[in-house]
Amino acid sequence: MPTHTITHVALHTVALPYVEPLKTSFGVEADKAAVLVELTLENGVTGWGECAVEIRPGYGAETIFTALHMLNNFLIPRLVGQPLSSPKDAAALLHGVREHHHTKSGLEAAVWDAWAKAEGKRLTDLFAEHVTPPTTSRGYAHVGVSIGIQPSAEATLAIIRKRLEQGYNRIKLKIAPGWDVELARAVRAKYPDINLMLDANSAYTLADAAHLKKLDEFNLMMIEQPLGYNDIYEHAALQAQLQTPICLDESVKSVSDLHLALELDACRILNLKPPRVGGFTASLAIYEVCVREGVPLWIGGLLETGVGRAANLAFAALPGVTLPCDISATDRYFAPDIVDPPFTINADSTITVPDGSGIGVEVQPDRLEAARAHWRSIVPYVEA
Ligand code: MG
């Protein structure tokens, strides 16, 4: 069993303008920001990870600034110089710090990437080896696309048409109160058979149950996280009233959350975002539960740059990930991204895992520097 020691960690705070501003129930964001982790092993091999944190608290509580604080003062010092006998050891060393899952996930992802590169294998194959029992990566992931809240149903229909033409065969629409039942009705009138799902990002309460029940007539794949971002109990009460399967996202932050949600029938489908649960070691544990219990599973995204996107794709290619994932082609969000090659969608709504070792994509130094400069240019507005 090889052992490795982390000798150095460099952090890069970056920002990239989105191709089009993204509107969800949280608000509108023009720029993607992230903390990228560049981690070096004793043998000189370098791995990359992305802390999927935001400029302002939104989907999660963590921000760029909390991530930098936790990494520099508490998390990196726990890893550097420690002998690791498995990439899973990193999560164990970070476990003593509670919460800060998105931040820990970026650091841990860099360990997984470096480990795979040191062994000369794809990250997806390293993940497959570390599943119990071991499995084999498919080498590609089924993917869909997420569409933000638009000014009108007509505008939404136009974007759906464009995405279907691009090859995506699963459409997810962000919804919020006042932008839900009639939107679904308009989409179903035009597209009665497409794979369609809705994501509420916790915009409703249990008092909306009768209204949400109206969505049952639209043959949706699922409704994602309709109620509170930490809630499991009320989702069970809602699921008892709905035919549409509830998919949990925000509320499942650990394997024990998943056990509780399954026991209560609060969650018939899981959207697993590796950053939300603290990284890939925790994700593998959750993956094993889903396979064992027959829970449909897909991998969600946090609009990651190519660094985080590549790691998510490596995980999404595992065979127990049974539903299309929110991993879009690069040009959906960034032009250009900071890595090469870009991710492109195949005609069958899949994305292929790149051949290279580790995450299989390379950070481009000139684009990294440009993204660091863009971050520095927007910081005054962020801090204002
Ligand atoms: Mg979601």
Provide key terms for this protein.
globular, 4-stranded antiparallel sheet, binds magnesium ion, alpha/beta, 7-stranded parallel sheet, 36% helix
Number of strands: 15
- Which strand order do you get reading across the main beta sheet? 6-7-8-9-10-11-12
Mean pLDDT: 95
List of distinct ligands in this structure: magnesium ion
Helix and strand sequence: EEEHEHHHEEHEHEHEHEHEHEHEEEH
Into which percent range does the helicity of residues fall?
A: 25-40%
Strand content: 15-25%
Largest sheet: 7 strands, parallel
Low-confidence stretches: none
Estimated structural class: alpha/beta
Number of helices: 12
Terminus-to-terminus distance: 50 Å
Tell me the radius of gyration: 20 Å
Structural notes for this entry:
- It is a single chain.
- The protein is an alpha/beta fold.
- 36% of the residues lie in helices and 21% in strands.
- It contains 12 helices and 15 strands.
- It has helices spanning 64-79, 88-94, 101-118, 123-129, 153-166, 181-190, 209-213, 233-239, 255-263, 280-293, 306-316, 365-383; strands at 4-24, 27-41, 46-51, 83-84, 140-142, 145-147, 170-174, 195-199, 223-224, 246-248, 269-272, 297-299, 339-340, 350-352, 362-363.
- The strands form 4 sheets. A 7-stranded parallel sheet has the order 6-7-8-9-10-11-12. Strands 3-2-1-4 form a 4-stranded antiparallel sheet.
- A hairpin with a 4-residue loop joins strand 2 (27-41) and strand 3.
- Helix 1 packs across helix 3, helix 2 runs antiparallel to helix 3 (101-118) and helix 4 (123-129) crosses helix 11.
- The longest helix is centred in the last third of the chain and has 19 residues, at 365-383.
- The model has no long low-confidence stretch (mean pLDDT 95).
- Bound molecules: magnesium ion.
- Magnesium ion binds next to loops.
